[in-house]
Request: fold
Amino acid sequence: MKYIVLVGDGMGDYPIEKLGNKTPLEKAKKPYMDYLASKGIVGLAETVPPEMVPESDTANLALMGYDPRVYSKGRSPLEAVSMGIEMQPEDTAFRCNIVTLSDKCEAYDNKIILDHSAGEINDKDAHKIIATIDKELGNDTRKFYAGVSYRHCLIWKDCPAVCSFTRPHDILGKRIGNFLPEADEYRRLMVKSFDILKNHPTNLRRVSEGKSPANSIWLWSNGKKPALPPFSDKFNIKAAAISAVDLIKGIAICAGMESIDVEGATGTLNTNYHGKAKAAIDALGRNDLVYIHVEAPDECGHRGEAENKVLSIEYIDGMLGFLMDEMKKSGQDYKILLCCDHPTPIELRTHSHEPIPFVIYQSNNETETGLYYSEEQAKRTGLYIKDGSTLINLLIK
Ligand SMILES: [Zn+2]
Reply:
């Protein structure tokens, strides 16, 4: 038996007036998803415990069979692992943004945060900035790693006691004094970074070109590497994961899965759907299970783009069609779990807490259900998985 988990990130939604009071899942033409629902098991699952924030790491941990209440350690260690950093148990990872603060000779506390992304700084400039920061602020226990654009990483061995940190994108345009970390060691690093960066050649050039300078670091999202029991031990099968998103790659690597990078997989509406589906079939040659995560519907949800969200679901349905055809050609029996990780309703433009609709289909055990794939149909069956981290047991056992 081969297993496919196909996750449309943020696919679930509410009825939308613009779509004739249908949800994007109801509006989309998706013959393959509907086929699975018409022949499989359909229900709802809670992927995010009520007391937790519906983040993608939390929900995808649950879908892979790891209770987020036990295993969720925040996003930064997952990002660090996906960057290839080998974290040790004594290491703590921090997200280190490079940001743009106002520069009017005011005290650091009085500065305004203008941009959490330093004008979506390019990698080349960003890497020069982080190299300087690591040289000046790094030491035997503290190392800054350059990532992508404004998203970088600090790994701190036996770090000082952590405190609460603020997400920089939540306080744009505000005076930073009230949002700096309370613990002195972290605050001091941020203050020093401004002195180091304000006249950095890269920033002077950026300003002369009319671009935002990356004139401070911003530390947030601390966490230890999650100690996930290997997926292969838990379920006695080999698994691979395909995603364009650092967080999901990080979970897969921590779970000992093969993490596959697909060229042109971008996490946007224009991602390489076909490339991902082909890579999934290829991965099933070496593995028993492949976990395919597609970010596009979530991205459309955050942007409030209803029609594009419908389109992204139709593209994912195309992937599903390819996967089913290829599996049929191979002559192997297979099961599919089709789901989303959490809803990202167009109306809210952020993640929500509602349970997710899922389908489990088994190629050699079809039953007529008369259902199609939607939030409402899934609710109607009455099948409700309270602990979403047990959903995968229905697939594998
Ligand atoms: Zn999202």
